[in-house]
Amino acid sequence: MEYNFKEIEKKWQQYWKDNAIYSVENGGDKPKFYVLDMFPYPSGAGLHVGHPLGYIASDIYSRYKRLQGFNVLHPMGFDAYGLPAEQYAIQTGQHPAVTTEKNIARYCEQLNKIGFCYDWNREVRTCDADYYKWTQWAFQKMFSHWYSCEVNAARPISELIEIFSKQGNAEVQAAQSETPTFTAEEWNSWDDKRQQEMLMNYRIAYLADTKVNWCPKLGCVLANDEVSEGLSVRGGYPVEQRVMRQWSLRVSAYAQRLLEGLDTIDWTDSLKETQKNWIGRSEGTEVQFKVKDSDMEFTIFTTRADTIFGVTFMVLAPESELVAKLTKPECAEAVEAYLERTKKRTERERISDRSVTGVFSGSYAINPFTGEEVPIWISDYVLAGYGTGAIMAVPAHDSRDYAFAKQFNLPIIPLIEGCDVSNESYDAKDGIVCNSPKAGVEPYCDLMLNGLTVKEAIAATKKYVESHNLGRVKVNYRLRDAVFSRQRYWGEPFPVYYKDGMPYMIPENCLPLELPKVDKFLPTESGEPPLGHAKLWAWNEAEATLADVAEIDNKNIFPLELCTMPGFAGSSAYFLRYMDNKNGDALVGKTANEYWKNVDLYIGGTEHATGHLIYSRFWNKFLFDLGVICKDEPFQKLINQGMIQGRSNFVYRVVGTNKFVSLNLKDEYETQQIHVDVNLVANDVLDIERFRNWMPEYKDAEFILENGKYVCGWAVEKMSKSMFNVVNPDDIVERYGADTLRFYEMFLGPLEQSKPWDTNGIDGVHRFLRRLWAMYENVSEEQPSAEELKTLHKTIKKITFDIEHFSFNTSVSAFMICQNELSQLKCNKRAILEPLAVLIAPFAPHIAEELWHRLGNDTTVCDATFPICNEEYLIESSVKYPISFNGKVRFTLEMPADMSKEDVEKTALANEQTQKYLDGKSPRKVIVVPGKIVNIVL
RNA sequence: GCCGCGAUGGUGGAAUCGGUAGACACGAAGGACUUAAAAUCCUUUGGCUAUUGUAGCUGUGCGGGUUCAAGUCCCGCUCGCGGUACCA
To answer: CA gyration radius for chain A?
Structure first.
């Protein structure tokens, strides 16, 4: 009988669906296991062959765990809010909800063809009101909480109000925006608005004037991870800096916990490293500098406190508040001009133009360690948003300060013995300190760093600064708060209305606040976000209902927030919702959460390393602080699957003709390389007829062939429509079947490695499945031979090891070897074939199911038990030892497998051939590696 | 610039703890079956040298080192990929 994969796959996919084979319960006797894929954004283009790579891997693991007796949660859903659907709506007028729905249907259809074991009852879509209810709910909780640095957790804002009314804010240790100190009396004397303004500095979700990445073309702000090199990641439009009043999330409050949490989870070192760099913890010192002829002081941050004796100037960020205060009248004009110039420069220009610019403020600071006066400059190489927005410049030991000093002819004082700073700065943190203080100069203070190593000098300076009240030891983080407002339509609405300019939350029991209908998706004429078009978009406070915008009176009826939430809002807690997606009373019920806990295995791409994977860890930790969930890290183990790149094919047209020349003859002509659709090419050989019909201009094309074939060139490029290298999984399923696709995607190479999709070679995998199929004809009930058992158990051992180590590509080889060996033995015995079917089920579930039933089983193969390797079958009766003399001469000797190491040595030495090589001499050394090799050193 | 990862036949890749490098697959060449083709099966396939079987040399980006033994460990480079960037 033929291997009719179409029929088999259709039959079993229908059966699994009809009998709800993959639906999972919360609870039961079995241990739990949670396997998660990063849910996709359903784009209009549908899935290409790269998308399922990670899904196939997680599906194999899920099925494996299930066969091992675990209760496996393996859900799928859709990250449905996003810019492309909105852009499409703007262009075509089609409502994003409609196109999104359509795209999801297409995705589901494509996914289901591949035979994944998802429990679709648990599907979530971020754009469903009963899902985003909980996104809004979490936002409200962030609004009503502050972060206490004392207990290192989020606390209700009511606690903070109580503290303020009793003792003011002087003693409060909180993650906060810059806030003036106030007393309890002051607090109590303020009206509600003033108090609310003050609380805004503490809330975890807060409104603030923020410098944001504004993309005029998209009419929207973008998060840092949505911008790359001054261009938007989606669309590639220019992005500029702008100050806007925006919602932000105080992610920075969690910086230390996000860093420490990395030690408790099983992620790759490279990903942990990326996150560590993104969080950017840096231990340093804040030092106060007095201003000459003034009672003003300002603070700088440095990680190199040891270099303070080498300070020759100070630099302020152009946006720093200090600029206005420290600019002397005689310099005002130049400073003004400089500020104007920097303001105009976009982020992109700043990146591309690295020339050194700056302007002198006219003021001098006094170095607290030397008493020297140093000029204060203003330059855009200092950032307002990091540290204090002001630095002490040590040109000898910082390359940026060095470039600045050279440009403006400022002095450079080397502080490390023997370092040469005539051409470049010496940035390395090693060496012995000198010139601190300078020899022969009357010491200004009693700190002596000369002779210490850099490390010792940093520690000594820190100690000195603290004990002399010159500043304090400080830890800074690069991680910024996340801007949370987007001026667009297709996202979660904020459950917020504005009264007297201050935000108020709509009551929790009124959630979800549903996204209103609009008829236009562009900003309004007055420049408001698209929600400004909505008619029913105001809040009646007294009745707690929506009201018409026309009725806004700011007494009972108030305007609602017009921005929506960014993409990461919906994806930050979706893994919790899968546990309990029908729950109307909570994001996730206590029982469900305590049962599933967190994700045991998460598979997805590295592109989310500094976006989704930071935000969702933050979000999760916040919910943990509230006591809503029981684990503070969401993803215990994480695997990054590599990207599947495209493999493009080329034809070579002879210039000025409609003639095409085959790859290896093209050097004889002057040719032009043209992309050709990879679907017209098999094993790099062009299907000439289909090529002629591909585009009208090629209808009369002529070909110069080699060996009767037209051979195409190829290159690895991004998979995209314009390169004609997109391969659709549906086409592969149609031609070879889902099981072949699954096997082949795994066979392509290591899961975590990026690799091009190359359809050459898929035949080999397909052939293997056909051979496997053929083995199950005429199954006999005979007892298996020792050799057959050995092959089976060897394979069990290998496959188990491979799955545990996510080495799926070598599993495929192991199956091929197993099949090959069994067919050499002409094995058709049930005792071998039945466990083999179970073993292969995670990889190729359809064929396994069919074979399993053909063997007479009436349960599904998913309910079988994963076979266990019996090592006894693997024991060899004899082992071949290669005997090698100093690694040069080699021959092989067979010995009993259970022979001891000593006996192996003896036998090897007593051997006739060994004696010949030893030639009467005794060996210097004999090394026996059990079961592998005997090395004889002459 | 900094951080991380990688480099093995014509191709994708294997070698899991330092132990016979090139498993498995593709491609290619030859053969069997067939009127023929497709499909299937068999043989060969890192390079070089000679050869009837066979043998010898060489070989994992480059240069050194440790070791009886190195693709694997150490030092110094080259190239490629990914992330990040005036973070003081």
So the answer is: 35
Contact A257, A153 (CB under 8 A): no
Q: Which nucleotide is nearest to A823 (CA to C1')?
A: B41
Round and report the angstrom distance from CA (A750) to C1' (B72).
18
- Whether A785 CB is under 7 Å from strand B: no
Closest nt by CA–C1' to A477? B87
pTM: 0.92
CA separation for the pair A474, A478 (Å, rounded): 13
From residues 339-378 of A, list those within 7 angstroms of strand B by Cβ.
350-351, 354
What CA–CA distance (Å, rounded) separates A547 from A511?
15
Tell if A807 CB is < 7 Å from nucleic strand B: yes
8 A C-beta contact, residue A388 and residue A299 = yes
The β-bridge partners of A378 are A316, A359
What is the distance in angstroms measured between the alpha-carbon CA of A141 and the sugar C1' of B62?
59
Strand B contact at CB of residue A683, distance < 7 A:
yes
pLDDT of residue A348: 62
Residue from A128, A257, A231, A199 nearest A619 by CA: A257
A888 pLDDT band (50/70/90 cuts)?
A: low
Which nt has its C1' nearest the CA of A276?
Answer: B3
Q: How confident is the model at residue A190 (pLDDT cuts 50, 70, 90)?
A: very high
CB count, 10 Å around CB of A891?
Answer: 13
- Residue A508: helix, strand or coil by DSSP? helix
pLDDT computed for residue A802 by the predictor = 94
Q: Which residues 526-555 of A interface with strand B at a CB distance below 7 A? A: none
For A406-425, the pLDDT digits (tens) are 999 999 999 988 888 888 88
**Assigned token pair, A407:** 């440009």
Supply the pLDDT for residue A376.
95
Residue (of A666, A612, A656) closest to A634 by Cα position: A612
Determine phi and psi for A205, rounding to 5 degrees: -105, 120
A659 touches strand B (CB under 7 A): no
pLDDT band at A723 (very low <50, low <70, confident <90, very high): confident
**DSSP string of A863-924, one letter each residue:** GS------GGGG--SEEEEEEEETTTEEEEEEEETT--HHHHHHHHHHSHHHHHHHTTPPPS
Q: Do the beta carbons of residue A71 and residue A28 sit within 8 Å?
A: yes
The one-character DSSP state at A487 is: S
Q: Could you say which nucleotides of strand B lie within 7 A of any protein CB atom?
A: 3-5, 11-16, 19-20, 23-29, 39-41, 56-57, 68-69, 81-88
Q: Give the E-state strand segments of A417-511 in sequence order.
A: 471-476, 482-483, 496-499, 502-505
3-state SS of chain A: helix, strand, coil percent to 5? 40, 20, 40
> Does any strand B atom come closer than 7 Å to the Cβ of A933?
yes
Identify the three-state secondary structure at position A832: helix
A135: Cβ under 7 Å from strand B?
no
Residue pair A554/A540 in contact by the 8 Å Cβ criterion: no
Exposure string over A69-99, b if 16+ CB within 10 A, otherwise e: ebbbbbbbbbbbbbbbbbbbbbeeeebbeeb
A708 touches strand B (CB under 7 A): no
Residue A254: exposed, middle, or buried by beta-carbon count in 10 A (0-12, 13-18, 19+)?
A: buried
* Rounded-to-integer distance, Cα A875 and Cα A931, Å: 11
Element (H, E) at A287: strand A282-291
